[in-house]
Every structure is written in structure tokens, then in C-alpha cells.
């Protein structure tokens, strides 16, 4: 019985590792969240495209909003994790410290929601992804599977749904709005932003300039 359980665990561990290698070149056809939304009755609109088919303003806005050390960390931003732990010790509040790579790991292989168990699985997957993929591919997959509305997945589907244009033609303002709604894309709508989202998008747009060219230089890697 123990041998059978060990074999099952080995297979379960091997599946995401093999998928990580494959997704270095192949666009993920589906994610657990897409399945959850489909089961819930949503019509899935998922249109992965190459990063060069996305306006440069969008990855810049996403980095400024979600992970401004994206190009320099190894999948996990340990400085951000330590800052979050220090803040928790001082205030009792625990804020997130997820990197874009960690979000890719979660979206590809895990389930939505919090919990330390999921984080424990997410961390090694993020390290494996960062080791196996160039940063450009991490961003490309992230923008291909991120949720931007009920059943809307990826920058191309989001741009067409919310702005009636391809992702390649997104303006800076539109890119900032898409980045602004990422924390809760089913509550907020990039095409009909609340006053809060407009303010958040304006802040993201300013940060996109402040982070500088070096902060997105890794996206030019092959």
C-alpha cells in the first residue's frame, strides 16, 4: 500500500514538472480556473498570443502594478516576503507578496483562494518556472492566462471584450486600467472603471514611467 501511495505521489509531482517544461514552448490550452468558471456556467474566451502581439504598455503596467522587481528576483521576491512578514508582526495584517511568476504557477496548476498549503505548493512551482523559462516567457504566459472578467482569459480576449480592439493596439490608459482590475477582475470592469480604478490606473501609469527601462529589459530576452 505504501509503495502504491509513493508511486501516486511521484506521478502527481511529475505532472506539473513535465507540464512546466512543455509550457516553455507550448501555450497552456486550459487552466484549473478556466475549468472552474466553465463549470460555473461562464463561456470561456481564451486567446493566447505572442508577447509581440501585445502593446508594450501592458507588460510595463503589470510589472508596475504587480511585481516591480520582476526582472531581478528568481521567481520569489524574498525581500517582499520579509517586508510582508515584518508588517504582519507590527500590525497584525498580512498582505500578499506574490510575484508574477507565483501567479503563473497558481493559475497553471493550483486553485484560487488563500491558505498556507497552497502557498507551500506555489513556491517550488514558481522557482521551477523561473529556472526553466526566460522572463519573457513568464510574462507571455501570464498575459495569456490571466483572468480579466467572467470567462475572459488573456490580454487578447480582454482587449477585444473591454475595448473592442486587439491587444497590440491598447493605449497606455487602457493597459493601466487592465492592470488596475487584476486583483478582482470579476468585480471591476476595465471598460467601465469606478473612480477608485481610475485613480489606481493613473498611479500605475505613473509608476510605469518611474520603474525605468531596466525594469522591463528582461522582456527583450529570447
Number of helices: 10
Overall average residue pLDDT: 87
Which architecture name does CATH use? Orthogonal Bundle
Q: How many β-strand runs?
A: 2
How many structural domains are formed by the residues?
Answer: 1
What portion of the residues fall into strands of 2 or more residues? Answer: under 5%
Distance between the termini: 47 Å
Q: Give the topology string: H per helix, E per strand.
A: HHEHHHHHEHHH
Largest sheet: 2 strands, parallel
**Overall radius of gyration:** 18 Å
CATH superfamily: Biosynthetic peptidoglycan transglycosylase-like
- Categorize the overall geometry: globular
- Give the uncertain stretches in residue-range form: none
Helix content estimate? 55-70%
CATH topology description? Penicillin binding protein transpeptidase fold
CATH class: Mainly Alpha
**By helix and strand content, what is the structural category?**
mainly alpha
Order of strands, widest sheet = 1-2
Description:
This protein is an all-alpha fold and 222 residues long. It has ten helices and two strands; from the N terminus they run H-H-E-H-H-H-H-H-E-H-H-H. The chain has a two-stranded parallel ribbon with strand order 1-2. Helix 9 packs across helix 10. The termini are far apart.
Amino acid at each position: 500500500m505504501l509503495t502504491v501511495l509513493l508511486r501516486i505521489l511521484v506521478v502527481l509531482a511529475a505532472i506539473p514538472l513535465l507540464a512546466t517544461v512543455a509550457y516553455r514552448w507550448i501555450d497552456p490550452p486550459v487552466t484549473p480556473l478556466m475549468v472552474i468558471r466553465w463549470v460555473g456556467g461562464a463561456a470561456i474566451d481564451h486567446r493566447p498570443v505572442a508577447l509581440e502581439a501585445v502593446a508594450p504598455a501592458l507588460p510595463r503596467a503589470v510589472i508596475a502594478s504587480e511585481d516591480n522587481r520582476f526582472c531581478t528576483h528568481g521567481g520569489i521576491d524574498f525581500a517582499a516576503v520579509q517586508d510582508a512578514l515584518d508588517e504582519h508582526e507590527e500590525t497584525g495584517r498580512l498582505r500578499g507578496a506574490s510575484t508574477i511568476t507565483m501567479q503563473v504557477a497558481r493559475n497553471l496548476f493550483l486553485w484560487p483562494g488563500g491558505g498556507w498549503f497552497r502557498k507551500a505548493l506555489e513556491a517550488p512551482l514558481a522557482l521551477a518556472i523561473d529556472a526553466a523559462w526566460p522572463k519573457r516567457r513568464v510574462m507571455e504566459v501570464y498575459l495569456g492566462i490571466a483572468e480579466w472578467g467572467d470567462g475572459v482569459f488573456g490580454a487578447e480576449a480582454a482587449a477585444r471584450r473591454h475595448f473592442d480592439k486587439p491587444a497590440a493596439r491598447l493605449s497606455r490608459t487602457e493597459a493601466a486600467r487592465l492592470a488596475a482590475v487584476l486583483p478582482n477582475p470579476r468585480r471591476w470592469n476595465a471598460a467601465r472603471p469606478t473612480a477608485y480604478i481610475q485613480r489606481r490606473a493613473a498611479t500605475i501609469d505613473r509608476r510605469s514611467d518611474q520603474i525605468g527601462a531596466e525594469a522591463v529589459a528582461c522582456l527583450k530576452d529570447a
